[in-house]
């Protein structure tokens, strides 16, 4: 289990910092353990922290006044989020909830802005991050309108193995079928069927509490 300093040092942006910049980043970051079902952050609250998943699995979602909930994406080990809201100085537009017990890093706004002012590699990381996230959400809108359930699930799972957004994901993900359903917005019946269809297409392998990606490009293009 990596300590906070090790997790930051191994991150895509942390390993590019100078010693002074890294010390500043570490001093401005705290770690919290979030229990299953608890909020990492909440819609409507002031945005004063940048967050990263050290270990665990969380989902970014929005709950409407009608009671309907929409899930935007899952966030797993190595993923950082919230930079857009920090840059715009707006209240948070979504909830982030833990699907299992997770370790979350919280960097305060002052430290985040200091790194932007002093580190070119940090800025490059943010540009790449924002570009990847924009592409991800545009793709999700397209998939929702054009693809069937199995194909939407394939694209949702592929998005969680984006090497730029989630460098710690590898090709295996500890995830239950219930968690897959929460992330993809699938009913219990569909979450029992769709992953099996993807396994039969030799795109992934289902194991107890885990899935293994066999063909990431195939998942990304499934249903095209």
TrEMBL record:
Transcription keyword on record: yes
Keywords recorded for this protein, A-Z: DNA-binding, Transcription, Transcription regulation
CDD domains for this protein: CAP_ED
Keyword Amino-acid biosynthesis among record annotations: no
Signal sequence interval, chain numbering: none
Domain Cyclic nucleotide-binding stretches: 13-133
Gene Ontology terms describing biological process: regulation of DNA-templated transcription
A Pfam family: cNMP_binding
GO molecular function, one term: DNA binding
Alphabetized InterPro entries for the sequence: cNMP-bd_dom (IPR000595), cNMP-bd_dom_sf (IPR018490), HTH_CRP (IPR012318), RmlC-like_jellyroll (IPR014710), WH-like_DNA-bd_sf (IPR036388), WH_DNA-bd_sf (IPR036390)
This protein's name: Crp/Fnr family transcriptional regulator
Species this chain originates from: Candidatus Proximibacter danicus
Lineage: Bacteria, Pseudomonadati, Pseudomonadota, Betaproteobacteria, Candidatus Proximibacter
């Amino acid at each position: 289990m990596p300590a906070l300093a090790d997790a930051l040092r191994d991150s895509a942006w942390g390993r590019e910092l100078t010693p002074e910049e890294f010390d500043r980043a570490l001093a401005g970051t705290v770690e919290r353990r979030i229990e299953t079902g608890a909020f990492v952050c909440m819609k409507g609250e002031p945005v004063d922290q940048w967050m990263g998943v050290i270990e665990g699995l969380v989902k970014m979602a929005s709950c409407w006044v009608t009671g309907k909930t929409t899930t935007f994406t899952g966030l797993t080990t190595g993923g950082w989020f919230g930079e857009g809201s920090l840059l715009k100085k707006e209240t948070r537009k979504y909830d982030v909830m833990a699907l299992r017990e997770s370790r979350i890093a919280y960097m305060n706004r002052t430290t985040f802005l200091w790194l932007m002012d002093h580190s070119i590699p940090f800025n490059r990381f943010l540009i790449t991050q924002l570009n990847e996230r924009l592409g991800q959400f545009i793709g999700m809108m397209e998939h929702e309108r054009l693809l069937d359930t199995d194909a939407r699930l394939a694209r949702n799972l592929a998005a969680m193995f984006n090497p730029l957004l989630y460098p710690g994901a590898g090709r295996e993900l500890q995830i239950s079928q219930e968690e897959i359903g929460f992330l993809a917005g699938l009913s219990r019946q569909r979450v029992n069927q769709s992953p099996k269809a993807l396994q039969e297409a030799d795109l992934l392998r289902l194991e107890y509490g885990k899935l293994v990606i066999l063909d990431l490009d195939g998942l990304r293009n499934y249903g095209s």
